[in-house]
Amino acid sequence: MLNRRRALQIGLASAGSLPFALGLVSAQQRKAPAKVRYSEVVRSVLYAPAYAALAKGFFSDSGLDVTLMTAQGGDKAVAALLSNSADIALMGPEAAIYVHNSDSPVKIPMFCGLILTDGLVLVGREKPSKFEWQQLRGKQIFALRPGSTPDLFLEAALRQNGIDPIKDVKLVRNVAIPARMGAWLAGQHQYAIFPEPEASQLELDGKAHFLASPGQTVGTAQGTAFMATDKYLRDNPDVLQSWTNAIYRAQQWTATAPTAEITTVLEPYFPGVGATVLAAAVERYRSLKLWMTTPAINLRAIEEIQDVLIQGNVLEPAKRVKFADLVVTEFASRAN
User: Fold this and answer.
1) pLDDT digits over 264-318, tens only?
2) CB neighbours of 335 closer than 8 A, spacing ≥ 6?
3) Which of 274, 291, 270 is nearest to 113 (CA)?
4) How much helix, strand and coil, in percent to the nearest 5, is found in the chain?
5) Are strands 140-142 and 191-194 parallel, antiparallel or unpaired?
6) Number of helices and strands in the chain (H, E)
7) Helix 48-55 / helix 237-256 crossing angle, nearest 10 deg
8) pTM listed for this prediction
9) Which of 134, 129, 130, 143 is nearest to 172 (CA)?
10) Helix, strand, or coil here: 132?
11) 191 vs 173: CA distance, rounded Å
């Protein structure tokens, strides 16, 4: 009798709490996801973990409704943040440095890292039995605009190998990005730096051969990272923590997922690019270890990117920025 009475009491208590539990579930279901306007600096296979966060539902699982736009340039990505037409942007760390040193009252600190270093690769028309940087001495190298991050990494890699980028080589910088592939295919220049998937496309077509990664040669100078305005950081800490959690999950997935699965994730973002080319680009970046496996940005990486900027004469030594003024660490430290 006592057991039956006890069972009845438990059942009634459970039944009484059921409406409350259902109310909690209903309230959670009614909570709308936070809308985030996300601007990437360019479209690149280098940003595979970010596409994984979108395609695999990691952002939506974290309560975020993300709209992706492509700025087509660091200056445009910065403008999107400062004009409040984007909430979060992915671009090179030099953007945060330049804005910090500018007259703008709004700053755009980094809060979540994605790439370890620069992602363009050096290619040549001929494939040497063994590549050495000294082979570039006296040659033309198809570079990008002066002061651009890939250009600065190329210069730093040349210096690191005893080559003066001004005196010992000729850096060709007068061709716009959309025309670079056509210029190379037309036979212009002996060496070039290209992003992925363009580099893999050229190699698979027999039009170029991979030689080296300037970014890997330079080392752990911070690559592209996520930024937001200081005001957005203050007003939306929950959104930024959710974002960082999703990116961390995507970084872990990208580090272990088979190449074929990563390629499938990338295909919708690169229409017209074949799966074979995308797979080759994925393998390239994986072998070069350019993808960060956690969102944490460290002091050394920020110091080294500022060294690159100073050597490239785009940052005055006296305007080196303190790590604490450039990086908000709290979200990466709590990522899960």
Assistant:
1) 999 999 999 999 999 999 999 999 999 999 999 999 999 999 999 999 999 999 9
2) 241, 244, 245, 247, 248, 294, 295, 296
3) 291
4) 50, 15, 35
5) parallel
6) 16, 10
7) 110
8) 0.87
9) 143
10) coil
11) 13
> Residue 330, by phi and psi: left (phi above 0), alpha (psi -120 to 50) or beta?
alpha
pLDDT one-digit tens code per residue, 74-97: 889 999 999 999 999 999 999 999
**Main-chain phi, psi angles of 91, to 5 degrees:** -165, 180
Instruction: Pull the structure tokens for residue 182.
Output: 């056509």
Whose tokens are 């800490």? That residue is 237
Six-digit token pair at 115? 């790439």
CA distance 105 to 87: 17
> What domains does the chain contain, in order, with CATH numbers?
34-117+221-333 (3.40.190.10), 121-218 (3.40.190.10)
* Residue 85: strand, helix, or coil: coil
Residue 109: name the closest of 327, 330, 315, 329 by CA: 327
Provide the 8-state DSSP code for 44: -
The burial class, CB within 10 Å (0-12 / 13-18 / 19+), for 171 is middle
Please state the φ and ψ torsions of residue 87, each to the nearest 5 degrees. Answer: -95, -40
